Amino acid sequence: MFTIGTLSKSTGVNIETIRYYERVGILPKPPRAASGRRMYDEDTVRRLAFIRHARDLGFGLTDVRALLALQDNPEVPCAEASHIAGDQLAAVEARIGRLEALRAELMRMVGACANGRAADCRVIGALAHPAETGAAGQSAQSELSIISKGS
Amino acid sequence: MFTIGTLSKSTGVNIETIRYYERVGILPKPPRAASGRRMYDEDTVRRLAFIRHARDLGFGLTDVRALLALQDNPEVPCAEASHIAGDQLAAVEARIGRLEALRAELMRMVGACANGRAADCRVIGALAHPAETGAAGQSAQSELSIISKGS
DNA sequence: GGTTGATCCTGTAGTCGCTACAGGATGTAG
DNA sequence: CTACATCCTGTAGCGACTACAGGATCAACC
To answer: At a CB cut-off of 8 Å and minimum separation 6, what does A42 contact?
Structure first.
């Protein structure tokens, strides 16, 4: 049994974030020492590592909750986990597509700039008069919202 | 001169977002009709289109402010605009790299799932025992934070 | 002139996933 | 015994919106 600082160091998750996870119910409330300090065990290290890895993969906390529930109920068919991961894969591929379009447009903008005055700046001109080519200008917005919404 | 609803429709920017932009000072306060309604002109359409396009390209509002200031002061050398766009390009390329690593890991996870029970699920297993291969697990976190921070 | 329904106004609070305090209590080492 | 590290709770802030509530105004039709 060890304290939150140790848990934080051994998982790389911020102390404040651990308490936040407890508050929103993604980590169970741990037992407390007589002084009120949270005391954790190895199981929590594993659970937190699972959460962190899922978060690193871009899963939102809602998805993480679902995946944890599956992990806790091993008799449930895993099609659901596979479905969640498939959705996430599709979202990641969509993001990559959007970002590649953005990259193309940014490269065009940066490449065209001749370091003159702002009046002639191709970067600013490109922003003021977007190119009609490709999908970049059309729904990169949703690319960004996809990201913040998780899967 | 037209109202906020018309501006919203002609730029595709939400009404609430337009008022938000005004509140945070990225759009100037427009003149009001006797009834108190905001009245816009074509210049605002252009300015808002500029903002929207820059946002679509992933620029944060701080960057957008800087780009607008450059546009408003045409005598300033555009090296700064070019620099902002270059930073953004680098950030986009970093995101793409991260996301490609995530994609590889997700494909591996989804591909390995045999639709058995959760106890044997490769997706859950992969999350519980992350692969050591590649950079996916190491700093995709920062990939996500880069996104939310803009450039 | 009256009534409906669309549009507008202000102000506040919610979203997501943290992160950063403030102000205090405890634990550990010298 | 004194530092200093670590912990606690609770609240507020971040970015970039979005979603109300509760009211005023406008345009069109009868």
So the answer is: none
Q: Would you tell me how many other CB atoms lie within 10 Å of the CB of residue B95?
A: 22
Instruction: Pick out the nucleotide with least CA–C1' distance to A149.
Output: C16
Q: What is the DSSP letter of B77?
A: B
CB contact under 8 A, B103 and A120: no
Q: Which residue is nearest to nucleotide C6 (CA to C1')?
A: B5
Instruction: Specify the pLDDT at position B95.
Output: 76
**Can you give the residue ranges of every domain in chain A?**
4-56, 79-149
The set of strand C positions with any atom below 7 Å of a protein CB reads: 7-11, 16-21, 25-27
Q: Give percent above pLDDT 70 in chain B.
A: 76
State residue B41's pLDDT score. Answer: 96
Task: Check residues 24 to 43 of chain A and report those whose beta carbon is under 7 Å from nucleic acid strand C.
Answer: 33-37
CATH architecture of B4-56: Orthogonal Bundle (1.10)
Higher pLDDT, A12 or A82: A12
Please check whether residue A42 is in contact with residue A1, taking contact to mean a CB–CB distance below 8 angstroms: no
Q: Are B26 and B61 in contact (CB under 8 A)?
A: yes
Taking an 8 Å cut-off on Cβ atoms, the answer to whether A74 and B106 are in contact is: no
B4 touches strand C (CB under 7 A): yes
Q: Is the CB of B73 under 7 A from strand D?
A: no
- Output the 3-class SS for B98-135: HHHHHHHHHHHHHHHCCCCEHHHCHHHHHHHCCCCCCC
Q: What is the pLDDT of residues A69-79, one digit of tens each?
A: 888 877 777 67
